[in-house]
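Q: Got a minute? One more chain.
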Amino acid sequence: MRGPLGAVIGRYPSSDGSDQMGSIIRHNRKCRDLVFLIIFIAFWVAMIVNSSFGFNQGNPLRLTYGLDYKGNVCGDKHAHPGLWELELKYWLNPNQVYLSGLKDNQFKLENARSICLLDCPAPSDDTLNWVCDYPEGEIRLSMSDWIDRNYDYFEFLTPEMRNASLQLQGPCYPVIFPSVNVFWSCQFIARSSNSSLKHWQQMGGVNINEDIIIDKSIHRSINSRSAVLKRYMADIGKSWPVLLVCGGIVPLALSVIWLLLIRYFVAAMPWITVALFNILIISVTMFYYLKAGWIGNDAISPIIGEHDPYIRIIGRELHHLRAVAVLMTFIMAVSVLTSIAIVRRILMATSVLKVAAKVIGEAQALIIFPIIPYTILGVFYMIWFSAAFHLFSSGQVVQNNCSSNCCAYDLALKQINCDRCCGYSIHYTPHIGIAIFFHLFGCYWATQFFKAASSTVIAGSVASYYWARGEASGEIPFLPVFSSMKQLMRYSLGSVALGSLIVSSVESIRFMLESIRRRLKVSGTTPNNWFGKAAFHTARFCLSCIEWTLKSVNRNAYIMIAITGKSFCKSSAVATDLIISNILRIGRVNVIGDVILFLGKLCVSLSTALFAFLMLDTHRYKSAHNKISSPLFPVLVCWGLGYVVATLFFAVVEMSIDTIILSFCQDSEEHQGTAQYAPPLLIETLNDQNEMQRLTQGSNEI
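A: Always. Here it is, folded:
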């Protein structure tokens, strides 16, 4: 059974029954949940080792560019030969591309001979253009001369080499089909040049297939799930200035502005928040419609650079954007209707926000305190993203095992070589998948940990305010924020690590279940009977409820940790008992306040998404090296980062309300229903039932 908190964080009762004056009582604290602090430190060591593996094995260029027939990454200046600025993958042999598209043929496109070029070659109208292999052996040309000659040294070939080239075995290959740059791969257009084909036939070249399969084969490879995922990851890397501005600076500024407005214009802020939320969610949804091509002519295109306007290629990214646009439409409709429904309760939210504004006014360091966890998380995210790019590209480049006829002329050996002529691919071992999952889990746990630590510090600061009767007197510790930080770092880091670990574990289980569901759906083995589907969806719903409950319990547990210094489990029990005992008293006020704060966080995150759309819509990210495949992932990452930053700053108001309400409940319970330490504004808000009824009735009449 819990003891009276007044004796813990209030004042020591003197022998004559009066309260001792002079200072807030310090509880005899000690380190709690030390085992979980050790686990957290060990986890960070493992994260460093895991990231080191990625930095040693990964090459982020693999996320964007393809491999040539030697296993080199296009655009890699350290390759042999040097491929600096040669970023486009080009398939030399059109017949191999055709064979890879046949359903009954075992030949795969990854085994077709490919090299890296500066631009996609085009057939000539009056002669036959050639694209020749990298110069070596008897071909004494430098790479720069080879590029200047448009990759053509056919005139230098010996009769043997020319004969091999006419058999489509190299070293030179005819340019029969036009091609366009689709995500740094030259995709053939199945429309052969009549003039080039005529010259080829006159020279005695072998038959070249002209079927549309040539087009579709490369298109399927470029739009595979793995290729799209790699491009999404590369998009995040290319748009790092957008992430820095829209995911870091913009939400920081907006969050501080929102806190200042709460401090000085608290009565108007709920109305402003609801109105601004509706405007922003409609604006972001319209941007998705714009990029999906449903409004205007600014749909994303997979083609890079200038091209024939009659050539139209649709990538998987466009379908993803359209799916998100439909989802955003549904979310927008539900959100607007919900915000309209809560308008009548905004007066109640205003009353509880006034209490938080009063606290912020007395302990003004709370406004700038979130900059500390914000800075720590900012540095962490920069290192984490860099390690993530290397981990996602840390597979091994290995030569394929193929039994197909891929013979080609080897300039170094001076003969046609049919041994080990298969192409290369990136092989991902199971331990790389585990390393990536571990890295993702580490990000989520670290984020939850710093958010929890920030909430605990704020709760300790606000508790000092409450138990000093809401007065800015000497009883409140000098700079209470830093006093609370000191207590957290000295006694309660283990408790915070445990609470954040529980939430992260539940979220990871949800993630794994969703991954299993998607794999089963792709393989066609999902349960078709109603019982199997019901069981699966029930499990997902239960996990969602558990996660929401845990987050709510954790938040109140952090408050009790800051106040009492107890362990996480004991603090959770005390907080839960207090909430259940006073659910009718605090529920109606706290819920509507949480809704307004949640809308405020969404306003900040939606603003960052809107700014991200505007930045990504500039020429820098629509052409050349920095062209992104889709704004989807950069915008979602900015949205997520904006929400995290907003959570850090809005926790000042959120934890202030929750801490004062819990302290009020405990204060009332210890003093036979009459709170002794509550500031007058809080008593007016929570304890005066007639006033609450009047506010509710007044809002209903509006």
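A: The first strand starts at residue 88 and ends at 91.
Q: Perfect, thanks.
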